[in-house]
Amino acid sequence: MLGTEPAIREHYVKSGQVVLIFGPVLNHFDRSDQTHQAAECAYEQGRFWEFHDILFENQGILWGGDVRQTVKHLAAEAGLDPVDFNACIDEQRHFNLIKTQDQVRIRAGIRGQPVFFINGDWLVGAQPFEVFAQVVESKLAE
Question: CB 17: neighbour CB atoms within 10 A?
Fold first, then answer.
């Protein structure tokens, strides 16, 4: 998704034609909990998508050691305010939010990832930008 998602944001989200909503999938226990909360903490500083991309680009290092310390380190490297970000992580400020969002996914029957809901149609699995563009353009034409 690192290639496709930024293209969707550039071509459709920036222009206001599409709203992209990212929902957590908490299938790796504390690692999922902490990384999704880290993205929400970055959102507090107006940098959700940027930090989302950093987390995806650094997935490998999130599997070793203390995941909270790792996301704090990544946030500092990304130039996020470390005092605010670290407090957000330490307080587990967004724990209830991400758990609630994940329950919505589970109740909807979504088990795999990635899954996209585009104005009534489901698009399942990682797809090239052209596939998204075709679906979005058909929806925009309706």
Answer: 12
Alpha carbon dihedral 24, 123, 3, 27, in 10-degree steps, equals 30
Q: What are phi and psi of 123, to 5 degrees?
A: -125, 115
- Encode pLDDT of 22-31 as tens digits: 777 878 888 9
Can you tell me the distance from the alpha carbon of 90 to that of 34, in angstroms, rounded to the nearest whole number?
10
Cα 132 to Cα 8, 83, 116, 126, 129, distances in angstroms: 8, 38, 9, 10, 5
pLDDT given for residue 2 in this prediction: 62
Give the three-state DSSP class for 91: helix
**Which of left, alpha, beta for 12 (phi over 0: left; psi -120 to 50: alpha)?**
alpha
